[in-house]
């Protein structure tokens, strides 16, 4: 099984990382920009069609990679994203303290 592509939709102050499944299901992680150097992860939603595939973690990981590359910090307000930051101390460089 090939891994679905993570897409990024940037709508100015808000946006999302998402994966669209062949059945129309969409897993997404939404964000809000807080100034030029901070990103707030607001919400992560993974429909049943994606459960057990690690899609939620992949969405957060992609945001971490993008933030690191752009020199930005992340504020994980979403409980899922916040839990992932606690599980991944190697992401401390992008976590807004």
Quick description:
The protein has 97 residues and is α+β, with helices and mostly antiparallel strands. Helix content is 26%, strand content 33%. The chain is globular, with a radius of gyration of 13 Å.
Question: Would you mind describing this structure in some detail?
Answer:
The protein is an alpha+beta fold and 97 residues long. It has a single domain (7-94), classed as Gcn5-related N-acetyltransferase (GNAT) (Aminopeptidase). It is 26% helix and 33% strand. It contains 2 helices and 5 strands. A 5-stranded mixed beta sheet has the order 1-2-3-4-5. β3 (26-33) and β4 (38-45) form a beta hairpin. The model has no long low-confidence stretch (mean pLDDT 94).
Instruction: Quickly count the helices.
Output: 2
The CATH architecture assignment turns out to be 3-Layer(aba) Sandwich
Unreliable stretches, pLDDT < 50, 5 or more residues?
Answer: none
Sheet with most strands: strand arrangement: 1-2-3-4-5
């Amino acid at each position: 099984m090939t891994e679905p592509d993570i897409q990024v939709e940037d709508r100015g102050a808000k946006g999302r990382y998402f994966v669209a499944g062949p059945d129309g299901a969409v897993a997404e992680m939404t964000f809000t920009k807080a100034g030029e150097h901070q990103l707030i992860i607001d919400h992560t939603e993974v429909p049943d069609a994606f459960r057990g595939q690690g899609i939620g973690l992949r969405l957060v990981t992609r945001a971490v990679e993008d933030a690191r590359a752009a020199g930005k910090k992340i504020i994980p307000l979403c409980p899922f994203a916040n839990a992932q930051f606690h599980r991944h101390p190697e992401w401390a460089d992008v976590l807004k303290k």
